[in-house]
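Researcher: Here's a chain I'd like modeled. Treat it as a single chain, no partners, no ligands.
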Amino acid sequence: MAVRELGGEVLEIKALEAQVPWPCPLALRLIGNEAPYIILGSGVAPSIRHYCRSHVMLAPMISVLLGFIAYAFTSRWGLEVGIVGGILGAATGLLLGIALLAALPIMSYSSRGSMLETKFHAFASVLASVLAGGTSVGEAIRSLSLYANDLKEFAVEINYANELLALGVAPENIFNELSRLTPSLNLKLLFRSLSRGVSAGSDLSSITRQHLEEYSNYYFTLIDKVSNSIGVLLEIFMVVGLLAPITVSIIAMLFSIYPTAGLSATEITFLMTFFLVPLVSLITVILVDNQASKLKL
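Model: Modeled as a single isolated chain. Structure tokens:
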């Protein structure tokens, strides 16, 4: 599978794995065949090689850290046990580091996709206005760079499109490549439609405006869903807030009547008051903020 980096290089995925430092090839295989698009589309690095070289020490550092911790913990039972524990800890840390190396771009890809979804209307509006001017598809793609400040969230897609255009890639293939690169679902659908529209000779401005209208309808539906979700979360928080004092009182009374070795009513009250309730509050705030962020335009 041929992939293009933002630097304009055309590489085979296997050749790419041979050019990045170990253990990056293992992380690329964990991500899958779409690894180049996920890494570039996540925005974590300007190129795949740059990402691998800047994060190459992640897995060894975790391996050394866990190996040292495992050795320090197990050496109390003897040097041999400590060495075996250290080796197992280092091996576990290496596997964890490789998994983290693969997970970072995937999580960033998903997070960036959610962010782009909220800004889709801005990109589609600018693209529709540029296409409506009667310019060619190539000129329309180049014109997007003029709106860099307004579309800074889409810099990865705009730069990638211009790189492909400079390489002489056909417009329909550029849109097809962009649909694989971008993490935004609505952008994927738009780019696929534009790719088919270029091949069929359709009016690209009308296609873009149609997707913009569909997004507006989707956004109004999303408002209802998010509002309901936030309402449910706040109801759960209110129930926990009301039941927590009652639960603490009942548990404290039970432990006072039927003491348990190693666990006192005071400790239960402390854990519930200073750990459980703040934890529930923190989780609620995070979940509500996550839901509300979907509506930020």
